[in-house]
Design goal:
The structure holds two protein chains of two kinds. Chain A is mainly beta. Helices cover about 0% and strands about 50% of the residues of chain A. By secondary structure, chain B is mostly beta strands. Chain B is about 0% helix and about 50% strand. Chain B is globular, with a radius of gyration of 13 Å.
Chain lengths: ~120, ~110
């Protein structure tokens, strides 16, 4: 069965360190998304990609970057981790449908703590 | 600007009673509409979607949702709630021409025995 996986599931790091969160999907979807989930804010879009070599900024992209070298993977990098980036991070993928996006399938999440 | 509202942070219902979780939206064009459920320490799971056609959409676990174009609403419903339905529910909208989701803030559903 197709799936979307994230690693690590839990990560503790220190302020100022570079951190990369992995996302891998076997749906063969063109669209991939990164969200963060914080209490009181719901889900906020960080970055997204519509295909290989395509990346776009979401509403809370400062301090994060992504790269898309193949269809399956969209790693999220925190260039210099800050305590404000302590959160739960979700990756999702979908296909384009009509003029919008079809169902997004979510990974299990990565809980990141920045000390 | 595109926006999605879930006006209730929390909904409490007794087991066996019907439940409704509300969602309204303000987007351009005809949107695609989705509901997701999130259990503690888990990712979001897809419940149902409306693309076109019948305004009443049926989904997983006995849930259904009614699309109302004039009220720009997409409320989630279930005729008889179960304790196991207790979770966080998110409404999402994909406006045509926008290849991404706009999420509501989430509604916590508490079903008491």
């Amino acid at each position: 069965d197709a799936e979307i996986t994230q690693s690590p599931r839990h990560k503790i790091t220190e302020t100022g360190r570079q951190v990369t969160l992995a996302c891998h999907q076997t749906w063969n979807h063109n669209n991939m998304f990164w969200y963060r989930q914080d209490l009181g804010h719901g889900l906020r879009l960080i970055h997204y990609s519509y295909g290989v070599q395509d990346t776009n900024k979401g509403e809370v992209s400062d301090g994060y970057s992504v790269s898309r070298s193949n269809t399956e993977d969209l790693p999220l990098t925190l260039e210099s981790a800050a305590s404000s980036q302590t959160s739960v991070y979700f990756c999702a993928s979908s296909e384009v449908f009509g003029g919008g996006t079809d169902t997004q399938y979510f990974g299990p999440g990565t809980r990141l703590t920045v000390l | 600007a595109q926006s999605v509202a879930q006006p209730e942070d929390q909904v409490n219902v007794a087991e066996g009673n019907p439940l409704t979780v509300k969602c309204t939206y303000s987007v351009s064009g005809n949107p695609y509409l989705f509901w997701y459920v999130q259990y503690p320490n888990r990712g979001l799971q897809f419940l149902l979607k409306y693309i076109t056609g019948d305004n009443l959409v049926k989904g997983s676990y006995g849930f259904e949702a009614e699309f109302n174009k004039s009220q720009t609403s997409f409320h989630l419903k279930k005729p008889s709630a179960l304790v196991s339905d207790s979770a966080l529910y998110f409404c999402a909208v994909s406006p045509q021409g926008f290849n991404k989701f706009y999420f509501g803030s989430g509604t916590k559903l508490n079903v008491k025995p």
